[in-house]
Amino acid sequence: MSETKHQPVRLYSKGVILGFKRSKVNQHCHTTLVKIEGLADKKDVPFYLGKRIAYIYRAKSLKKDSRMRVVWGRVTRAHGSGGVVKAKFARNIPPKAMGAPVRVMLYPSNV
Fold this sequence. Notes:
6-stranded antiparallel β-barrel; 0% helix
């Protein structure tokens, strides 16, 4: 009997938090800018609209026997024409998260 080796399947795309939505003077902390890996153009953004985003971080104290925490959000719209998207999270993202990785889940699916 031969065993077939399967590669693990990743059900998310990688992304990076760039910063908050802002203008020259004001910063709006309720909206976060996220760069998604493999997304290079505005025309590809509709696939990601409504997809869930997970910002996962480590905390000092244990909760439910884990130090890992997650803040969930959703992709809301495009930001510019270079493949950056705007996202809203359940709780505002902390400033230490700028440049941190996020997971863009491939659900809910519209296909």
